[in-house]
Each structure stands twice: as C-alpha cells, then as structure tokens.
Amino acid sequence: MSLKSDLKFPVFLVASLLILLVASVVLRRDNHGEYGGQAEITLQEPRDTVIDKDVFGIPRDVYRIENGVVEARQTLSHIFSRLGFNQADTDRVAREMKDVFNPRRIRRGNNYYAYYAMDGSAALSFFIYEISDLEFVRIDFRDSIRVLRSQKQVSVIPGATSGIISSSLWNTLMDNDLHPELVMHMSRILAWSVDFYRIYPGDRFKVLYSEQYVGDRPVGVSHVDAVYFLHRGREIEGYRFEADTIKGYFDPDGNNLRKFFLRAPLEFVRISSRYSHSRLHPVHGDRRPHLGTDYAAPHGTPILAVGDGEVTRASYTRGNGNYVRIRHNSVYETQYLHMSRFASGIRPGVSVSQGDVIGYVGSTGIATGPHVCFRFWKNGRQVDHLRLEFPSGDPLPEEYMDAFVRRKELLKSKLDNIVFEEEPAI
User: Fold this and answer.
1) Is pLDDT above 70 for 374?
2) Does the chain have fewer CB atoms within 10 Å around its N or its C terminus?
C-alpha cells in the first residue's frame, strides 16, 4: 500500500467524526428549547431579598414595639427598671453607652422605643432613644450589647413660599404653617441687611429652601437657596453659592451679604433701652449716660459674638455682672454684660468667630431683669453701633462670577414665579 492510500482512511475517519459531532450538537439544541421541545432549566443564584426597614434601620413586622416618652426627672435607670432590668444590668448598659452617648443627657419629652422578639422568647432585642428629630441611639441586645449612634434616613424636598408681614417675620411664617427653622435661616442670612427690630407692616419676602423629611414628617430646613426681602421700601436679594472654599450668600452683583459685624448679639429679641447720653437709670433713679444698647431676652438665651476677634476679658464686676469683652481689630471692640454664665471655653486669649455663642442672657450685676447690655467701641470711644454702616465681607472672586451668574439667573426666575397673596381688604 502506497503512502497516499494509507492517508485516505484517517482523513475519512476524521470527516465522519466531525459530521457525527455536528449532528449531535444540532439534535441537542433541538431537544432543549431554542428550536422547540422542552426548555432547558438553568439554576440561578437567588437574588437578595429587599428587607423593609423602619427609620431606625430595624426590619418591619418582625418585632413587637412598645414606645414611651421620657418624663420629668426620669433617668436611664428608671426607664430600664420599667423594662425589667436590674441595677447591675442597667449599669452595664450605661458603660457600653458612655463612648457613644452620655446616658445622663436624656431629656424630658424625648421618645424611646423597645423592640421585643416575636419568636416565643419575648426577649428585648433593641432599645431606641431619640436624641432629636434626626439623631438616635440604638442598643442591640441580640447577641451582646452593641451601641450605635446614627441618623434617620432623610429626604430633602425643595420648597418655596412668600409672605407679607403684619407683625413679625416669625408670626408670618408660623401663620403659613412653615417650619420654625426657616425663620432662623432667613434671620441669619439677612442679619446684616435687615433690622429685625424695626420690621414694618407691609414688608414682604419670597424664599426658596430645602426641607428635610423623615417619611412624610417635616423635621427641619437644611438650607435656603435664595431669598428676596422688601424692607422699608428697599429690595434685598441673596443667592446661595458654593464652590471650592467659597460658601455664602451674595447679592445679584456678587457682593457678600455678610457684613463685618452682626447688627445685634441676639436673635429675635427686642431693644429695651437704646444708646443715650441721658437716660433715667432703672435702679439708681437718676439721669446718667447709657452708652450701650440693651436687648431683653429670656434667661439663658445664647449671646453671639458680633464679629471675629479675641476675648480680652471674661470676668465679673459688681456693676457689669458676668461680662465678655472682645477685641476685633485695632479699631473695634465689643462688650456683653449681665450674662448668667459664660459659654464653654470662653476665656481671655481665645479666638472667636462671628456668630459663636460666648455666653447666655442673665441678670447678674446691676440689672432689673434678664437682658444683655451690648457696648461698642470705635477707636477707643463708645459709640451707637446702630448708627454705623459696616463694610461687607469679601466679594465673590472674579473667577467664580460666570458660574454664580448662571445659578443666580436660575434661582431668580424661580423667585419671580412666586406671587404674593395679598391680604383681603377689611
């Protein structure tokens, strides 16, 4: 047999095997679905089941829940005693909590929740204490005691409103069922531009803001995006802008709404006595200079530094009571009298920023009631700060103007679409 004839058999054999292999593949596909017949069953890994959880991150419909409210003079021991804990167990819980939340800081009126297993054991699985509308402490008892401090899941929803003031900004917003935090945001943004102690009936505003919700319950205002305020015939606009290290509110031309000084060291209080060179003294009964402005406010109201500076005095005298003095620069100094107490850390040599709490309203020293006497020095002389005009903070840098203008135009168009609801004529 020649070499050529010897090669024919293997070639024929290979060709036959290939034909059989292709036929087998075609038949296999025909028997398994793509071309007819029973579909091949493919086993897949089960997908993760989505577990519905409550605002504290605990699965719903798994536990029996009991809730309560912290009562006056009630402590953690009282609460856990009601839950069946002995003193040793309560002390152990308190030790585990101390690095996360001080158990002595539980407050009257705050809510707590106990989650019990529904597996027949009825064991306490979780304990929740609400620190605030947003923040809570969760204690997990299932294996060992584990303590977590966290925040609820929050949704942020844009809002818009307007109002015409008849008595005060606070009353106008409350009459419209708006969150009290919106008042605080607006007052801080406009603190340098609007004299809230001389609000006029007919003053009006528009505001764009973002409100925080837990579920369908409003719990706060995260920020204001834009505000328009007509104050005594003068129009004031402010637009929120953030980029890199820039953060603040600016007028349509990019000027900072923030001034070098706040107009007052308190929020939403009344002037009880103005700067005067001849005032009838409420205690001594004679006329004498009163080179300051008195702001009446409830005892314990926070007192704010009106500008950046360094504390030079934090002490007590018979007339001034507890007082703080701040040097802002070589020209300006301020002083805050009759405090009930100083804020934590306030002492000579400490630097403070505008808006920092430096103490709390009281009536120490010679005072007839709770208030702060605010005194202002310019070049070593006491002056009436309400008659001074202060420069604005740093304007928006030129390189951010294009981005600011685009954002301002977008927000302004939204403000322009808000209409004032005029009060009906009587």
Assistant:
1) yes
2) C
Residue 215 is encoded by which pair of tokens?
A: 């579920």
pLDDT of residue 272: 59
Query: What's the pTM value of the predicted model, to 2 decimals?
Result: 0.63
Task: Tell me the three state secondary structure of residue 16.
Answer: helix
Same domain, 103 and 141: yes
pLDDT band at 144 (very low <50, low <70, confident <90, very high): confident
Choosing from 118, 151, 184, the residue where a domain stops is 151
Q: Residue 232 carries which DSSP code?
A: T
Alpha carbons 207 and 184: distance in angstroms, whole number = 13
- Other CB atoms within 10 Å distance of the CB of residue 123: 11
Query: For residue 167, what is the domain's CATH number?
Result: 3.10.450.350
Q: What is the reported pLDDT for 122?
A: 80
Tell whether the model's pLDDT for residue 11 goes beyond 50. no
- Number of domains, the chain: 3
- CA nearest to 386, candidates 116, 180, 245, 195: 195
DSSP 364-414: -SS-SSSEEEEEEEETTEE--GGG----B-PPPPGGGHHHHHHHHHHHHHH
For residue 208, what are the domain limits? 154-259+391-426
- 199 and 274 inside one domain: no
pLDDT of residue 286: 53
Per cent of the chain over pLDDT 90 is: 48
